[in-house]
Amino acid sequence: MNTVKALAFFMMSLLTAVTSASPSQDQLQQLRVSVTDAMTAFYMYNGLEADVKYAARMDRNIEAAFDALTSITEGGDSDEETAFIRSLLSDWNTFSTLIADNRQDIMTRGYPDIRLVNEMGEACLSMTKEATRLYKMDGRPAEEEVSLPVRLSHDLEFQMADITAQYTGRGTSNLGQVFVGYHTATPKEMAATFEALLNKFEAVVKEEDKRTIRGIRNKWAFLSRSISNYNENSVPFLVLTYNDRIIAELRELTAKYR
Q1: 232 and 114 within one domain
Q2: Residues 18, 73: contact at Cβ < 8 Å?
Q3: If you ran DSSP here, which 8-state letter would residue 139 be given?
Q4: Hey, how many other C-beta atoms are within 10 angstroms of the C-beta on 40?
Q5: For the chain, how many structural domains are there in total?
Q6: Best mean pLDDT range from 12-16, 117-121, 170-174
Q7: Which pLDDT score is estimated for 80?
Q8: Are residues 56 and 105 in the same domain?
Q9: In this predicted model, which residue has the larger pLDDT, 8 or 70?
Q10: Angstrom distance (rounded) from CA 127 to CA 132
Q11: What is the structure's pLDDT at 9?
Q12: Host H or E run for residue 37
């Protein structure tokens, strides 16, 4: 836990050290997916009595987000980009400190402070919004632009991670919506967005890759049913397993369209 706080302190020291060069879309993608999956890992950690597997998952995501942010702080061609980056760093400091504190509360007293969990979620949401705005910002050098298939795959990966965070937040706590109050869309709305993106993605991939898309659709069929019925039969472990498989397949496709 001290390591997480040390990373937060180090990132705050970079608030005055933003240099020029636009942050890459890969770094921004890594950031928004990693902090979202860290929330998922936290929910599972809380709901499954501090399971070390999810503690390790949290650590991996925090480290991945930190690596991305370290690279992103080297960017900022325009005043607008620099402002976004400073906001990201401030939110990171809040998020990483709170995830450490909330995790410590679970270890020492068995449950976190709900107000602090909500503040952690708000910081996560703010980071992903800022990262998404930077990702989509115009004016990026042509050699840094990602192809349409990569962009769609990135959006699908992030949407999948976001859906899973909301589902596990609801499915691992008897406090329900309190734990996921920072989400602005319902599970049904998020699922509709995922399906629309998947249709667009399938339309632009090569014929040889449509088999992989069908595999994603099969896994998604299970997930969408679980998302619709989370109040009746919550299965966060299975949803997380399918989430990981879908994201792994999306990343394999992403690599083909670089």
Answers
A1: no
A2: yes
A3: -
A4: 27
A5: 2
A6: 117-121
A7: 83
A8: yes
A9: 70
A10: 8
A11: 46
A12: helix 25-47
- Identify the domain containing residue 113 by its residue range: 1-140
- 126 and 17 together in one domain: yes
Q: What is the CA radius of gyration of the chain?
A: 18
Residues 133 and 25 in one domain: yes
State how far the Cα of 84 lies from the Cα of 88, in Å rounded to an integer: 6
Statement to judge: residues 184 and 114 lie in one domain: no
Q: Name the domain boundary from 140, 164, 190.
A: 140
Do 90 and 164 have their domain in common? no
Token look-up 């070390």 returns 52
User: Which of the listed residues 140, 175, 204 is the one where a domain comes to its end?
Assistant: 140
| CA terminus-to-terminus distance, the chain | 37
Per-residue pLDDT, 66: 96
Contact 206, 214 (CB under 8 A): no
* Mean of pLDDT over the chain: 85
Cα 162 from Cα 217, distance rounded (Å):
18
**What are the distances in angstroms from CA 38 to CA 33, 35, 51, 164, 202?**
9, 5, 14, 11, 29
Q: Is 139 left (phi over 0), alpha (psi -120 to 50) or beta?
A: left
User: Cα–Cα distance between 26 and 201 in angstroms, integer?
Assistant: 18
CATH number for the domain harbouring residue 45: 1.20.1440.210
Q: Is 62 left (phi over 0), alpha (psi -120 to 50) or beta?
A: alpha
DSSP state of 86: H
